[in-house]
Amino acid sequence: MAAPKKGRRPAGGQSRPGRALALILIAMVALTGAMFWSGHTTPRLGIDLAGGTSITLKAKAEPGKEDAVNETNMNTAVGIIDRRVNGLGVSEAEVQTQGRENIIVNIPRGVDEKQAREQVGTTAQLHFRPVLAWAPSGPATPTPSGSPTPSASTKPSAGSSASPSASASDGKASPSASATTQGRAVSEALKKAPTPSASGTPSPDASKSPGTTPPSDDAAKLQQQFAALDCTPKAPKSGDKKVVPNPAQGVPAEQPTLACGTEGDAKYLLGPAEVDGRDVDDAKGVFDQQRGMWIVNMEFTDAGAKKFSQITGKLSQQQEPQNQFAIVLDGSVVSAPSVRTTLSANAEISGSFNQQSAQDLGNILSYGALPLSFDTQSVDTVTAALGGEQLEAGLIAGAIGLALVVLYLIVYYRGLSLIALLSLGVSALLTYVIMSLLGPAIGFALNLPAVCGAIVAIGITADSFIVYFERIRDEVREGRTLRPAVERAWPRARRTILVSDFVSFLAAAVLFVVTVGKVQGFAFTLGLTTLLDVVVVFLFTKPLMTLLARTKFYGEGHAWSGLDPKRLGAKPPLRRSRRVSATVDSPKEA
Predict the structure, then answer these.
(1) d(C-alpha 17, C-alpha 538), whole Å
(2) Model confidence pLDDT, tens digit, residues 346-379
């Protein structure tokens, strides 16, 4: 009979359970430290728990253009509305589509509801304004200068094209024109603008005579404001998200204005709007095969083509930055390409675009011409008191469910309940820490359905322990001692646990994909806790059970250990009788 090889592990054995316990302990300490380091020690609460406003918008198209309500246009609208809401300093707002034609905007408490409704319910304002001066962000002496135009020029195609675009963040002083000359050009451009009245609208005389020259002190005042303008992102109040100032918001299109770039790294002095979004017929980002670069193609309406031809004819004769026109969306400059030739119905913007930036700019330009508007379907406001009551009710339900599970484990499994309770504690700690970290990381908000998912997860996690404990008890009933029973029970229990958790995770994943809104919170929490269940069972419950099986209390089957062979009705150990056959040759030998 061959002797067993030394050092060979028994089937299903785990030689060093301490390593697994050390690994999960390190993970817990690291995640907890990251939570305290980030400063977000509590999960971010959703609207239904923290209180706030939920606005439902329904898109509608103009008669004869029903196909305008499509996925691309809706996603563009979501991006614009999200940027508007963020402009209020709201760091926890959620903007998402629901179905084919609805947009849901969730704004937490602390934000003026009236202002929020105005921001999300109005159509995007897109204008093309001539650039009079440009400077890096921050208060400084105004030195009108433009972005350097790339040396490679664009060949006018059928129609015409704009010269390559220059990013506002790359702007530098133009070496070909002095500050004095540029400053004089700015003053001359401002003189051609209508005179703003005290109310912020053009005076009656100015509206009747577009060529009326405003007082020189108005132009000087605007230039002083431009010099003092700081576009660096700032938080409206402590704890809010930093936002870029928007001095152009609300300024009539026929007046000159100050403006900031979308990133806050550049400031602009802009002339009156010459073209608006309704003059754009279509725009899209495409890849130019010949030049190997991404560009944005624009097409104008007949009326827009005439306006664009006039303004580009004037801009093409100017020095930088007066040969640039700013594309202004809701008061923010999203791009400021320069013009080298007179353009008409078709134009092209090129430069340092990648696929995403080219398509984004094309969507923004198209949105100003889309026949889309939004009706407010419903506005639901949840007070902080109501949200607190719902959170309290959810926590009470979770506590009751946990108490029932604990009571069942103690009564039925006795000493084994200690392992289950420690495992539940580890799972709860990991869930809490990860939820707290996911709030600032991906915007996860704990809503009432998510709380329900966490409560359901208590049963799923406890079920994994019960499967393993019952497998161990089955082995003990067969007459085996605890240490081999723990190792022999693990492979069968592991297979059952993995199959069960896979089904739960698959259901959560499908639910997350096919649903929207708050139901996704339930699916996300259920999926997260299911994954954590696998981690806890493999790295904590099984190793801990292996260690405790070596103790006298559990190993010898104490009456309160939950593994008493007598209480389990264990069979006596099976002993094989060895049959010996021998040939008897003589009575003496017998």
Answers:
(1) 10
(2) 788 877 788 888 877 777 777 655 556 777 787 7
Can you list the pairs that 286-293 forms with residues at least 24 positions away whose Cβ atoms lie under 8 Å?
Answer: 286/358, 287/355, 288/350, 291/350, 293/350, 293/353
DSSP per residue, 417-458: HHHHHHHHHHHHHHHHHHHHHHHHHH---B-HHHHHHHHHHH
First vs last Cα of the chain: how many Å apart?
Answer: 27
Residues 514/397, Cβ–Cβ less than 8 Å: no
Residue type for position 12: G
3-state SS assignment for residue 393: helix
Distance CA 57, CA 84 (A): 15
Count of H helices and E strands in the chain? 17, 13
Query: pLDDT by residue (tens digit) across 57-72?
Result: 888 776 666 777 888 7
The dihedral built from the CA positions of residue 475, 479, 484 and 488, taken in this order, carries a sign that is negative
Would you say how long the chain is, in residues?
Answer: 590
Exposed/middle/buried for residue 582 (C-beta within 10 Å: 0-12, 13-18, 19+): exposed
Long-range contacts of 425-431 (CB under 8 A, 24+ apart): 426/24, 426/28, 426/536, 426/540, 427/457, 427/461, 427/529, 427/532, 427/533, 427/536, 429/28, 429/32, 430/27, 430/28, 430/31, 430/532, 430/535, 430/536, 431/457, 431/528, 431/529, 431/532
- Check if the beta carbon of residue 336 is closer than 8 Å to that of residue 134: yes
DSSP state of 169: G
Amino acid identity, residue 424?
A: L
Question: Using CA atoms, how far apart are residues 455 and 529, in angstroms rounded to an integer?
Answer: 10
Contact 557, 564 (CB under 8 A): yes
Strands 332-335 and 257-261: parallel
Residue bearing the bigger pLDDT, 7 or 345: 345
Decide if 493 contacts 437 (C-beta within 8 A).
Answer: no
How far apart (Å, rounded) are the C-alpha atoms in residues 197 and 220?
A: 16
Q: Is the peptide bond before 321 cis (omega within 30 degrees of 0)?
A: yes
